[in-house]
Task: structure prediction
Amino acid sequence: MIETIFALASAPGRAGVAVIRVSGPRTGDVLDAVAGLPRPKPRLAVLRAFRSDSGAVIDQGLALWFEGPASFTGEDCAEFHVHGGSAVIEALADCLMALGARPAEAGEFTRRAFQNGKMDLTEAEGLADLIDAETEGQREQALSQMTGSLRSLYEDWREQLISVLVAIEGEVDFPDEEDVPDTLSDTAGPPLEALSQALTRHLDDGRRGERVREGFSIALIGEPNAGKSTLLNALARRDAAIVTDIPGTTRDVVEVRLVLGGFPVIIADTAGLRDAADQVEAEGIRRALERAERADLRLGVVDVSRETRPDKLLGTLRTNDALILNKMDQGQALHLSDELGMTRFKLCAKSGEGLSALEGWLERQVIERLSRREAPALSRARHRQAVERALDHLNAARGQLSRAPELAASDVHLAMRALESLTGRIDVEDVLDRVFSQFCIGK
Result:
């Protein structure tokens, strides 16, 4: 039996207004009992006194009625807009429980919307991301996904697979001649190849969607006392890392979250690269190298007042990274050849001289790598894994067309199942539990 649920849909804590949402088969009876008759017309807010089961007035506020299936969850829904004091909210919650409703679990409203066909799984994930969005880039990506961009793309691929499957099974079940393999290569081969290329392009996006959600990673690496911590503090506009003249002060990774170009960015200060003096410093260097390897962009910080060439640092950098020639105020004793091919910035992190040029370049890099493209981006590891499975099965089907059409049809079926797991068409209870448990109570 479907239960009637309720939850605080607005933020918890003292506020001017609080919204309590109700959904389920007994919602109409609950609304009538609390707000009185006549029941409000659908989607029309009315001012009512809200009463407990004893008839005592709890508060005065707005009542709204959403008759299913024309509601967020697809069920009968109601909202009570009350004053946001904790005593009012608690009293109304007690009243709703006395009338047979129970408190909702995290994400239960959205899960019911999914189960009632009001949205698919990618749209539900987009809604969760929209609630959590802290930057403009995150908001744009989440809104696009919530309004069906990924769903449309995956459904289009699924429909193309159905057409391919019809062609394969038709030739296998009703062959006119003994040239089925040649016929299939002509009819099913090109669309399978086109789909394979489309999925490959979708995957080959530099994990753009995941970086918009989680943050673009930048690692500061270099020798001890090169000025990495000073640069981190300058970029963060606060004292995020400890700065001393003692080499090896930074032992662990220190992270700062920024917003550049409307996108989330995580800048990590790391331990200085040198021969470790002890086990603790050795672990810090190991973590520094690991973070540098995983980073989307590395900034190699060099103290140009020294004459020693930082070969250990240079070996970790790539051509699309940047060299930060720091401490220019102390004179340039070190000169690195241009053969390294990396972008360079001369600055003094301590005074801030030259910092604006670096910040402008970083912002342009982030915008260029994370800005929206024509096709929607994969926003979660779950999406990427499913598309990778679908691509593997597509490529297997292409290889089987001329040898074993029945096996090719089986692989197309498996590719379809992989895509259907993205939108929630097939039974994926373990995935559903993970997705909806991330929602706040009341959504």
Notes: The first helix runs from residue 27 to 35. The two ends are 21 Å apart (CA to CA). The mean pLDDT is 88. Residues 226 and 303 are 5 Å apart (CA to CA).
